[in-house]
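Ticket #4471: structure export looks truncated?
Reporter: QA, pipeline team
Priority: medium

Steps to reproduce: submit the single chain below to the structure queue and open the exported record.
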Amino acid sequence: MLDSGAKIVAGVDEVGRGPLAGPVVAAAVIIDGSKWRDSKSLTPKMREKLFCEILARAKAVSIYAVPPGLIDIMNIRNASFLAMRNAVEGLDIAPEVVFVDGPWEIPGLKVAQRPVVGGDRKIPVIAAASIVAKVARDMLMGALGEIFRGYGFDHNMGYPTKFHYQAINALCLLYTSDAADELDGVDLGGRRII
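Actual output as written to the record:
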């Protein structure tokens, strides 16, 4: 799949499309090697170890997060594209081609790109980006869990678990649209928390 003929190849992936809370985070990586695997197939401990290794070995890494308020305005798909585009554009080295996890090209990206369905399982440079994005978002959600106690962000990372729904119901009993604005939107009707 890496038969692009390009010498400088980047991979890009995003994480955080499904949660009720937190940002969508994308990472773009330029790195040699073929040992990287999809972040979803790794334990958190293994992801963290590989994250450090990738940061140490990569020629370039860029991470970009789109906050919940902007996700609400532009929708999760467009926010994912924005995060991936900005991650690629933030690389210190300009890639000749970018392998994108998923079926779509990134709109507005002025670099040759190849979308690959299931790319995080097939293309090592996308898998490396997947690991970086996942660990970066998990770290951010852990920090948010220290600020917004009771939601279990250090365990559920903002994803819709039974505990997370129970916490929303228990901690947001006085929910109104005004309260949602104060909390940056606690509205399960399509909006994100925090």
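Status: closed, not a bug. The export was complete when the record was re-opened. Leaving a note from the reviewer for reference: The first strand starts at residue 9 and ends at 15.
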